[in-house]
Design a protein that fits this description.
Shape: elongated
Oligomer: single chain
Strand content: under 5%
Distance between the termini: 68 Å
Helix content: 55-70%
Length: 115
């Protein structure tokens, strides 16, 4: 007995479509994966640039304005700014870990750490 055709929009149609996507990827079609990788690289580079700016500002506050890098230092405007930059860099680090920056950084040709 021949099987009935699968109706568009039905659960069987959706399962069949998902199966074909998995098989296409297994056969080498990585269209969406490439988009995801490109997006993750773009996010990585944006977060990395922001982190480098924050690091430069931290160094400037310490070297030029005498901000005390000790977390328990007395409150003053430069030390308060340093504290905010430290918090921002912690959040940037969380974002970098979320996009698995360690994998992306292996091929990062602009990182000072690779020089």
């Amino acid at each position: 007995m021949p099987s009935a055709p699968i109706r568009p929009g039905s659960a069987s149609w959706r399962v069949s479509g998902a199966f074909h996507q998995v098989m296409a990827r297994a056969a080498g079609d990585t269209g969406h994966m490439v988009d995801d990788t490109a997006r993750d690289r773009a996010i990585y580079h944006a977060l990395k640039a922001a982190d480098e700016v924050a690091a430069a500002l931290q160094a400037h506050l310490i070297e030029e304005h005498g901000a005390d890098p000790d977390r328990s230092a007395a409150q003053d405007p430069s030390t308060n700014s340093l504290k905010l930059l430290r918090q921002a860099r912690e959040r940037l680090g969380e974002g970098l870990r979320a996009v698995e920056a360690d994998h992306i950084a292996e091929s990062d040709k602009i990182s000072l750490r690779n020089r």
